[in-house]
Specification:
This protein is mainly beta and about 110 residues long. Helices cover about 0% and strands about 50% of the residues. It has no helices and eleven strands. Strands 2, 4, 5, 6, 9, 10 and 11 form a seven-stranded mixed beta sheet that branches. Strands 1-3-8-7 form a four-stranded antiparallel beta sheet, with no helix packed on it.
């Protein structure tokens, strides 16, 4: 069965960095576009970043452009999100998503001093 397991969330001060990872299994990872979403309390889930099947194309929400970088390792079936210059408004639960229609369980990111 399809599984997506996120890791790497936590508490960080404004201006800090975190790296999220998502380990995928149960499907042919290299064949699918992968995405990171986030959902802040009281807000709708929003798309943060997208990466193509071979990692040659990426796309970002305007709110994270220039600060976040999505990448993937098809040999290890993982997708990552490097988050730099974090702001309090980046606080949310971050979810990994595969365009097969499956979600990970989410990992909490809290940016606060």
């Amino acid at each position: 069965q399809v599984q997506l397991v996120e890791s790497g969330g936590g508490l960080v001060q404004p201006g800090g960095s975190l790296r999220l990872s998502c380990a995928a299994s149960g499907f042919t990872f290299s064949m699918y576009i992968m995405r990171w979403y986030r959902q802040a309390p009281g807000k709708e889930r929003e798309l943060v970043a997208t990466i193509s099947t071979h990692g040659t194309a990426t796309n970002y929400a305007d709110s994270v452009k220039g600060r976040f970088t999505i990448s993937r390792d098809n040999a290890k079936n993982t997708v990552s999100l490097q988050m730099n210059s974090l702001k309090p408004e980046d606080t949310a639960v971050y979810y990994c998503y595969v365009t097969l229609g499956y979600w990970g369980q989410g990992t909490q990111v809290t940016v606060s001093s």
